[in-house]
Design a protein that fits this description.
By secondary structure, the chain is an alpha+beta fold. It is built from seven helices and nine strands; from the N terminus they run αβαβαβββββββαααα.
């Protein structure tokens, strides 16, 4: 098992946690801002790793403690040698109203990290923009789309289900503007 140090990257830490959970039969995947960090090579830097799992919280806590994490009063797991913290915010395997059925896996020296696909990461960020007017979510969706292969033919019907076709068009305009800027 890889050790956690001050130099452990967010992706490496995600893989360490993912592997440790998998070894005891706990299925979990990384979502949220950490996925944006990984897919954009830290254009957006997150310091928390949000894992989604249906597993019993006491089993998760045991795995995290075995890795050297301590749980604070909330749901956060903190490691004395890492600037990142880990959270298990819920068990929703949905992005908006759509069930997540496919995941990406990234193989690193520290293990295999299971995480949202780039397309579902974009949906996750757009959900924040669509439902809470989170402009940072819009920016992150654009950055991931510029950095990774994203199936926009999947994002558009999802946006319609979310009742956000007008905001989807705003996303496309922001994406076009950012890609023009990127080419300059």
């Amino acid at each position: 098992m890889s050790t956690i140090s001050e130099k452990t990257t967010i992706a490496e830490l995600g893989a360490i946690v993912s592997e440790a959970l998998r070894k005891v039969g706990i299925d979990a995947f990384l979502s949220g801002g950490a996925v944006v960090s990984i897919y954009t090579n830290n254009r957006y830097e997150s310091f928390d790793l949000d894992f989604v799992s249906l597993a019993d919280r006491s089993k998760i806590k045991k795995v995290m403690e075995d890795l050297g994490f301590n749980q604070d009063r909330s749901r956060l797991f903190i490691h004395p040698k890492s600037k990142f913290f880990v959270e298990f915010p819920g068990s929703a395997i949905r992005v908006g109203e759509s069930l997540i059925t496919e995941f990406n896996q990234i193989k690193l020296k520290s293990g295999t990290l299971k995480l949202l696909t780039p397309t579902d990461c974009v949906k996750d960020r757009l959900a924040a923009f669509y439902h809470w007017n989170d402009r940072q979510g819009l920016d992150q969706a654009v950055w991931v789309t510029l950095a990774q292969p994203v199936d926009l033919k999947d994002v558009k019907p999802w946006s319609k289900i979310e009742g956000a076709l007008q905001k989807y068009e705003e996303f496309l305009k922001a994406l076009k503007a950012a890609s023009i800027t990127k080419r300059k």
